[in-house]
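Cobalt-precorrin-8 methylmutase, pasting as requested.
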Amino acid sequence: MFMGASTKQGYDIAEKSRKIVKSLIDDKTAHLTPEERAIVERMVHSTADPEYADITRISDDFVHESLKSIRNGGDILTDINMVKVGINRYHGNVNCYIKDERAVKIAKESGITRAAAAMRVAALEGFEGIVAIGNAPTALLEVLDLVQRGEMNVKSVIGVPVGFVGAAESKKALQETEIPYLATEGPKGGTPVAVAAVNALINLDMGKV
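Structure tokens follow.
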């Protein structure tokens, strides 16, 4: 059932919410493909913020490459555990290395954030798949550097870090690469947005929207 509903009451509420969301953003998402619209609708539903229909940017190849990775059982990498916990019903691995001892050591020795260091650990582990960044701009920038150096095999990136320091800049940098991406413009983003985007992709793979 839609958006996690498992009872008739839950389904009825979800359906009502879906209709409200569609009424608020239909005109704003008319240029998107049905799959892209489903993703944006879930982001708006999860945040109760229709502005995401205005500020979300999706590259032409994002949905195709992301679904291909999911269907091939590719890993999903998150910047923090809150994003990892929110991703459900995925048959593959969802990894987060922010509490890994290696990330702690790298962060201390290199003078970088643990979120950025966690991306380096993922690269060492041979990560291949979708990256979902909901909080740390430093993690997103590290991913871009790792990809540029040929040290990480990324299929797509959901780059929606939240905040007033570095978030907008990191998302702009993502959009200037050739990596298939979904990004939000400006300071808005966060865990609910990253989780919504990933779970929407999983639902699309399962034939649910």
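Note for the archive: The longest strand covers residues 153-159.
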